[in-house]
Amino acid sequence: xxxxxxxxxxxxxxxxxxxxxxxxxxxxxxxxxxxxxxxxxxxxxxxxxxxxxxxxxxxxxxxxxxxxxxxxxxxxxxxxxxxxxxxxxxxxxxxxxxxxxxxxxxxxxxxxxxxxxxxxxxxxxxxxxxxxxxxxxxxxxxxxxxxxxxxxxxxxxxxxxxxxxxxxxxxxxxxxxxxxxxxxxxxxxxxxxxxxxxxxxxxxxxxxxxxxxxxxxxxxxxxxxxxxxxxxxxxxxxxxxxxxxxxxxxxxxxxxxxxxxxxxxxxxxxxxxxxxxxxxxxxxxxxxxxxxxxxxxxxxxxxxxxxxxxxxxxxxxxxxxxxxxxxxxxxxxxxxxxxxxxxxxxxxxxxxxxxxxxxxxxxxxxxxxxxxxxxxxxxxxxxxxxxxxxxxxxxxxxxxxxxxxxxxxxx
Length: 411
Description:
This protein has 411 residues and is an alpha+beta fold. 31% of the residues lie in helices and 24% in strands. Strands 1, 4, 5, 6, 8, 9, 10, 11 and 12 form a 9-stranded mixed sheet that branches.
């Protein structure tokens, strides 16, 4: 039973949404963030990546960065760039990209649902990344980056949101530089009870993207509880900012791999070694895998198709049957010596948004090999999460990315 409630959003005032909205802080480097914000005083990156307003070379985890983030946020609030709605509300957030739409519900999820497992995860998190966002949330006393959640198709969320849009107040409608259109509506007061009741019937919600932000938000809430032993559970720190999308509207892109060398093997020896687990054939040009358990491989200037042979995966195991697992267990580890892709400096991960030309460029530059994968599917993610298991690293790449800065949840 998911507890997902409306809140009083701090959000851009009229005319500022397109100027404020920014990509998530963790999809770019500090240098890239500086370039994106050159001459732009309103971008939310001044809050999410506040080191860009300090001298180059500043440690992004220094106290000064979190202090500057708070200063920048309060300056924009005092300057009228942000406003806070007077009453709690849900918000409907639609992203349109390449002819596809996904429409989600913005609200606040309960930290108790994460603790109990009603909000299900599929990734491990790193303590250093958690600590960064814990300090950021604490400094601002607010959640700034929404957690990307999914609800199963049978929850009925998509139909309910579509029914409410014609009756809702239109707030924002703009297209970002990457071609993604962002639309936001605020449904009327009568929507809150209906929407909250619908999500209360959902047995679980699933983290699609934002595992570190989610874990950090929960730990901030737990810390606030410890400092307020008389808490009632209704305080804002018991909830965190999230957007729930219907599962059936979401699309996962491929998350590909480039290895910098052949682990000391000649090209002929490498092809001979992988033949025991994969059947292959040469391709005349770039070609995406057509189905699960097929891969496209770029080696020495040419593309090949690879098909995993029966017996190289276990259909009963939701992790072992993932293509990222099949490639790792049957080729990357035993043939190329990539035993731990989390720590190896010989492997690079390339999101499908960058295209196959980027795989070719990186493989050619290193003299190595690239692998294009069939995308992980939403049903795979849900099966892994329902089983209480963890996906291998870099299994999913969601597009389009939610923008930060359109909604802030004060604690």
